[in-house]
Each structure stands twice: as C-alpha cells, then as structure tokens.
Write a structure and sequence with these properties.
alpha/beta, Rossmann fold, six-stranded parallel beta sheet, three-stranded antiparallel beta sheet, 5 helices, 25% helix
Length: 221
C-alpha cells in the first residue's frame, strides 16, 4: 500500500531540492509525477517550485479551499489544471488510469487539516505515494496546521537536517527584520526567504526570542 511521507525541517535545509530530485528520479524512469504547491507562495512565479541551487519545475497550485483528492483525480483525467505543459519537466496533461506514480507537495506546512486527510485518501484509495515537504514550526515555535496534521497522519516522518550558525542542529526558525532583529509577533504566515528567516538551534531560538529591542526597553528618567 502507498504511504504518506512527511519530510520536515527548518528553513534552508534543501526541502525543495529534495522534492525536485525525487520527481526527477520518477520521471527519469518513465513515471509521471504531480507536484503541488500553495498558491500564496509565488516567490519564483505562479505555479513554480524552485530551489536555492537553481533548479525548478512547474506545479499545480492549490488554495486552502481546494480538495486535493479532487485536484488529483482531475489531473489524472486530463482536465484543466493550473500547470503549464510547456517544458520537459512537466508531466502530460492527460494520463491513462493508474499512470500517476507519485504526488509531491511543496511548502506542506500551508496545508489544512482537511487537505492532509485528502492526501491520505490519495494513498489509500488510489495507491499513489504522497511525499510532503515543509516546515515543522513557525517563527514562534508553534506547529503549523498542516505540519501538525502531517505529524499525526503520515506513515513516515523524516527530518531533513540543517545547522545553526553555532554548528548545532537547527530545529527552529526566527523571523527577522531588515536590520536582523528578531520579530516576535505577527501573522503566522508570511512568505520569505533568507531576508526574513534564519534557522537556529533551540538555544539560540530562546536567546533570539528573549532579546529586548530598543523600542521595548523601559523608559528611564
């Protein structure tokens, strides 16, 4: 039976690179893949997954209201989707039954709980493996909705490791401003890269969150 995999990490651990490599491995062997990515993450253009090392692929975008099982079945039937079939990295837009061999999800922390359940349905009812890649926690150390659901529903959990500036394993993410100061409050979802986020170990996450900015310091007479 196909499985639901969750590959999680802090920022800049190579999640998108691994996703694209996995998709390439399938396609190199004549198999078809479906890459899904959240519509709100358009840093590299709409309907595109890209890595920091310069490789990219077209994707089908989704919103929180989309039923991903229906998206899968629609794509399999060859009906209209958001993916552009304009490069060798794109799968055919019309596939025979059982000809979709793997679903890959980028930025999976932005999934809803219902969508994670729908991904598990793709595994269980269509016998197609699903590989989801995303962050585990946000800039305040809290689980994302999608990550929490994936931790509960996935058959396999795989940590992708990266390192803090001190050399320890980075497991947390700090949000920073233009001056490199830690931002402690705000919306959980804010798209950004190295200019807004830095991966750190738990100790340096605590230190970063406990720093007091000048505008937070008490007034002294």
């Amino acid at each position: 039976m196909a499985k639901l995999y969750f590959y999680y990490s802090a920022m800049n651990a190579g999640k998108s690179t691994m996703l694209l490599q996995s998709s390439y491995n399938y396609r190199e062997r004549g198999m078809n893949t479906l890459i899904l990515s959240p519509e709100l993450d358009n840093r590299f253009g709409p309907g595109k997954v890209a890595s920091r090392i310069g490789i990219a692929s077209e994707s089908v975008t989704f919103t929180p209201s989309d039923n991903l099982k229906v998206v899968y079945e629609t794509f399999l039937a060859g009906e209209d989707t958001d993916v552009a079939d304009n490069s060798s990295s794109s799968p055919p837009t019309s596939l025979p039954p059982s000809a979709l061999h793997c679903v890959l999800v980028d930025e999976a922390q932005f999934l809803t709980r219902a969508q994670v359940r729908q991904l598990s349905d793709i595994c269980d009812w269509h016998d197609t493996p699903v590989l989801a890649y995303g962050l585990r926690t946000d800039f305040q150390g809290n689980l994302f909705e999608g990550s929490e659901a994936l931790l509960a529903w996935s058959d396999s959990l795989v940590e992708i490791k990266t390192i803090c500036h001190c050399g320890r394993k980075a497991t947390m993410v700090l949000r920073i401003d233009a001056e490199g100061k830690t931002i402690k409050d705000g919306s959980q979802i804010q798209i950004g890269g190295n200019d807004r986020y830095v991966s750190v170990c738990r100790r340096h996450f605590k230190e970063g969150m406990s720093e007091r900015r000048e505008d937070e310091l008490p007034l002294i007479d």
